[in-house]
Amino acid sequence: MPTHRAILPHLVTGTFLNVAAVLLGTAIGVTLGRRLPAGLQRQVLAGLGLVTAVIGVDLALGWRDTSALYVLGAVLLGGLIGEAIGIEARLARLGDRLQAGLVRSRQPALGGRGESTVSEAFVTASLLFCVGPLTVVGSFEDGLNGNVEPLATKSLLDGFASIALASTLGAGVAFAAVTVLVVQGALTLGAGLFADILRGDALAAMTSTGGVLIIGIALRLLDLKDVKVGNFLPALVLAPLLVGIVSLL
Question: Residue 25 belongs to what domain range?
């Protein structure tokens, strides 16, 4: 019980701060988006895509601290597993359900257009906010040491990203706050279980793999390639696992 009492405040101050930033950013983005012409909305999304690409490349180059083979193997195997399970399709179906419910509740306000990007916003924002290494590192620092600075930094980044996404894709970005709460909350509470595993080569491999996935998100934001990033999520687990397997051989 003392352990849970020690961890729970960190969960509140770290993960809840991130959730609040996403919700606030979404509110600002939706308000601004209504006033921006379509051309400016596309430009905002393109700008976010470019910045996301740079962040992804920077993180992906982390394989220089380990072996590129770990990252390559994790991405290839993870993609096959994710495709077989249908992770992206499951996320899309969940987003579609949220979209259907929101469209029904706002049918008069839509004026018959029936247009909604809730599903796209939910999936894109959830992946963007939870794939990066700051999600893991920040949650571990929060849960183990009570250091909320990494998650505070992530909250600031996610807040600005929420503004950009919500200004173009709409209020569906807010649903990603639930994903952040579940993923980061679980990592924070379970930090002690993984503290001795995710370090050194294992952490570098996972960070680099996360960077590769973030590049995939950037390609989607830039409308260059519809990369099914959700199907590559198992790669984040496989990367440190491959490091562990090789170390045992």
Answer: 2-248
